[in-house]
C-alpha cells in the first residue's frame, strides 16, 4: 500500500473521530476556532476559574482601594478597575502564575478533582480528556497541589477551632463522663444509633494512626524473609547493604468523627516526630483515641485512650481477643482505619509516588476531602480572616521595626540591631510535648 492510501485512511479516521484534524488545545487563545467542536463545556469551566481567582486571590486597585472586577474580552488574563482603569494580571502571584493554557483547562481539572474525590485525578486522565501533553498535565496537577498545600494550615485551623469550641462548651470531665454513660446505654445498638447519640451530644472523637504506602518490605532485605526487621519503618527503607534510601511513604493520619482528615508524610514513628504534629492539630482537652503505639500522649492529653490490637484471648481456643479492635469502653480508631482503606485504594491509581513528592499528593487528597466536610464558605471565610490578620501583623511589625531602626540609627547601633533581629528570626519555638536536644 502506497503512502497516498495511508494518508487517505488516516484522514477518514480523523473525520469520524470526536476531535477534529487540528488540536485546539495546542493552539493559543487567539488561534482557537470560533466553533469549538470539543464536547467539554469550556465556557462553564472558564467561569469556574474566574470564580476561583476572585474568591481566593482577589486583585485590588492601589489607588481606589476597591476590588478589580472589570474584564477584558480579548485578554482573559487581565483585569482592570472600573473607575481609574488600572490594569493588572489576574494570574500573577497565584497558583496560575505564568499560566499559558486556556483558563478553562484549570477549571476543568479543579471541578473533576472535586467531583471524583476521594478518587484521584491522575495526569494521564487529564491528558486523555483535554488533549494536552503528559508533562503539561503533570504541571497542571502540580498547580492544584500547590494550592492545596497553601490551604493546609487553613484547614488545620478549622479542625482545631471546632474541637476547641466543643471543649469550651463543656468541660473535659463532663465530656468524659457523658461518653462513658453513652457507651453503657447504647452498647448493644448498631452503628447508626451510636453515631446519632454522639451527634446529639456534639462530641467529636479524634483518631491518630499511621499507614504505609508503596511498601518495600520484600525488597528492603534483599528479598529474604529471614533476619527481617519489623515495624512500619522497616518496610519503607531499603537495607543498609542496598543503600538505605527511602522507597515507601509513611503517612500519619488524624481523622475526626465528622469526616475531617489531616495527613502528614513522616520519616518515622518517634515521639519527637509525631508529638509536634498532634500538638499542632488537636487541643489538649479533646478526647483522642490511638493504638498502643502512643503511650507518651498520656502526659499531655488526659482524655487519651488506647486500644491494643495485639491483645490475646484468655480462652485457649482462640488466639486473639474480641476487644482488640473495639474495647469494652468503646475505644477504637475506626475513623482512621476507614480512611486508610480509602487512601490506599485511591493512591493505587498513581502506581508509585516518590517520597519527596508524597506531601503534595497528600495535601491534594486532604483538601478536597475537607472541602466536602466544611464547605467552601467556611474555608473561604477562614482564609480571608487569616490573610487579613497576617497582613495587619506584617504591617504592624514593619512599622515597629522602622521605628526601632530610626532610633538605633540615631544612636549608631543599626548594625547590632540588624544582627540581633536576624538571630531572633532564626530561633525556633520549643514544642511543649518533647524536650529539645
From TrEMBL:
Residues in ISXO2-like transposase domain copies = 219-370
Q: Please name the source species.
A: Leptospira fainei serovar Hurstbridge str. BUT 6
What is the recorded name of this protein? ISXO2-like transposase domain protein
N-terminal signal peptide: none
Looking at the record, which segments are called Disordered?
A: 169-193
InterPro entries from the xrefs? Tnp_ISXO2-like
User: In what ranges is there compositional bias, type Polar residues?
Assistant: 169-178
What would be one Pfam family of this protein?
DDE_Tnp_IS1595
Amino acid at each position: 500500500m502506497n503512502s497516498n492510501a495511508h494518508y487517505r485512511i488516516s484522514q477518514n479516521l480523523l473525520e469520524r473521530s470526536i476531535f477534529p484534524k487540528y488540536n485546539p488545545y495546542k493552539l493559543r487563545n487567539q488561534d482557537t476556532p470560533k466553533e469549538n467542536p470539543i464536547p467539554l463545556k469550556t465556557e462553564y469551566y472558564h467561569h469556574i476559574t474566574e470564580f476561583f481567582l476572585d474568591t481566593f486571590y482577589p486583585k485590588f486597585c492601589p489607588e481606589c482601594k476597591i476590588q478589580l472586577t472589570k474584564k477584558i474580552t480579548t485578554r482573559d488574563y487581565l483585569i482592570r478597575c472600573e473607575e481609574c482603569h488600572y490594569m493588572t494580571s489576574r494570574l500573577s502571584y497565584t497558583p496560575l502564575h505564568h499560566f499559558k493554557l486556556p483558563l478553562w483547562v484549570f477549571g476543568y481539572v479543579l471541578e473533576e478533582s472535586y467531583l471524583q474525590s476521594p478518587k484521584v485525578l491522575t495526569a494521564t486522565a487529564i491528558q486523555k480528556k483535554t488533549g494536552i501533553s503528559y508533562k503539561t498535565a503533570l504541571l497542571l496537577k502540580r498547580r492544584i497541589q500547590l494550592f492545596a498545600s497553601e490551604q493546609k494550615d487553613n484547614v488545620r485551623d478549622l479542625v482545631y477551632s471546632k474541637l476547641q469550641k466543643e471543649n469550651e462548651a463543656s468541660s473535659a470531665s463532663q465530656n468524659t463522663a457523658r461518653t462513658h454513660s453513652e457507651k453503657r446505654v447504647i452498647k448493644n445498638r448498631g452503628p447508626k444509633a451510636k453515631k446519632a447519640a454522639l451527634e446529639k451530644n456534639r462530641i467529636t472523637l479524634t483518631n491518630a494512626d499511621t499507614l504505609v504506602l508503596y511498601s518495600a518490605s520484600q525488597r528492603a532485605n534483599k528479598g529474604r524473609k529471614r533476619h527481617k526487621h519489623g515495624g512500619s519503618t522497616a518496610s519503607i527503607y531499603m537495607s543498609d547493604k542496598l543503600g538505605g534510601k527511602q522507597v515507601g511513604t509513611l503517612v500519619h493520619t488524624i481523622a475526626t468523627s465528622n469526616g475531617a482528615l489531616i495527613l502528614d508524610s513522616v520519616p518515622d514513628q518517634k515521639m519527637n516526630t509525631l508529638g509536634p504534629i498532634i500538638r499542632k492539630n488537636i487541643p489538649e482537652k479533646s478526647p483522642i483515641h490511638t493504638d498502643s503505639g502512643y503511650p507518651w500522649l498520656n502526659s499531655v492529653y488526659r482524655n487519651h485512650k488506647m486500644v491494643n490490637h495485639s491483645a490475646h484471648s484468655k480462652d485457649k481456643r482462640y488466639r486473639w481477643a474480641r476487644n482488640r479492635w473495639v474495647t469494652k469502653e468503646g475505644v477504637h480508631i475506626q475513623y482512621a482505619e476507614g480512611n486508610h482503606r480509602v487512601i490506599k485504594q485511591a493512591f493505587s491509581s498513581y502506581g508509585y509516588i516518590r517520597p519527596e513528592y508524597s506531601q503534595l499528593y497528600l495535601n491534594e487528597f486532604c483538601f478536597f476531602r475537607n472541602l466536602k466536610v466544611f464547605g467552601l464558605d467556611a474555608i473561604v471565610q477562614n482564609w480571608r480572616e487569616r490573610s487579613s490578620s497576617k497582613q495587619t501583623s506584617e504591617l504592624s511589625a514593619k512599622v515597629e521595626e522602622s521605628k526601632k531602626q530610626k532610633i538605633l540609627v540615631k544612636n549608631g547601633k543599626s548594625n547590632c540591631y540588624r544582627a540581633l533581629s536576624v538571630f531572633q528570626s532564626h530561633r525556633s519555638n520549643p514544642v511543649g510535648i518533647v524536650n529539645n536536644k
